[in-house]
Amino acid sequence: MKLVITGALGHIGSRIIRDLPSIFPGIDILMIDDLSTQRYCSLFNLPTQTTYKFIQGDLLKLDLKSLFSGVSVVIHLAAITNATNSFDNQEQVEYVNFTTSFRVADACAATGAKMFFISSTSVYGTQKHQVDENCSPDELNPQSPYAATKLKEEAMIKKKVAEESLHGVILRLGTIFGTSPGMRFHTAINKFCWQAIMGIPITVWKTAYEQKRP
């Protein structure tokens, strides 16, 4: 079995590429990353029982249909991920994230590869009551360009599943935390841990004092 992981060197990807071989022995893993965050260390000390191939490239330019030929599953992680900073570079986030997801979905539909799209619970926004993935679109309240774009990407994928030959699954991840070779520290839990260890006051937004999220 052959898998493709986009954004393979990031916080989540760098952990997945190490964990998958123990779950699916003998798989071939194609890692795609543009190295824009320079996480070279994510390529070090990979498990030896799996065949890895790494492509440094831009998903906006790569021939994805050719790369996905013969692939069973594509895990699409690649994205501009800092929700807070997305207010300052909204156009870039919207264009890059949506267009890359569209191209990945299109290539998966054309080649028969199954697509796992990594979305975010950020699409729910601030809510007065408990919500889950079964809530209606009207109940969703994304509060950043990053989250709003995730919602658009979800809609695009659902349309391709309904109208084309795409086999896709959408995963709305909660707040990620923990160590990985490509870990980042602007996620809430990792940032809290870093500040606590360094003796720095923990940063909590005033608007979030009474909020809870996964």
TrEMBL record:
Belongs to the NAD(P)-dependent epimerase/dehydratase family. Gene3D superfamilies: NAD(P)-binding Rossmann-like Domain. CDD domains: SDR_e (cd08946). InterPro entries: Epimerase_deHydtase, NAD(P)-bd_dom_sf. Pfam families: Epimerase. Residues 4-207 form the NAD-dependent epimerase/dehydratase domain. This is NAD-dependent epimerase/dehydratase domain-containing protein.
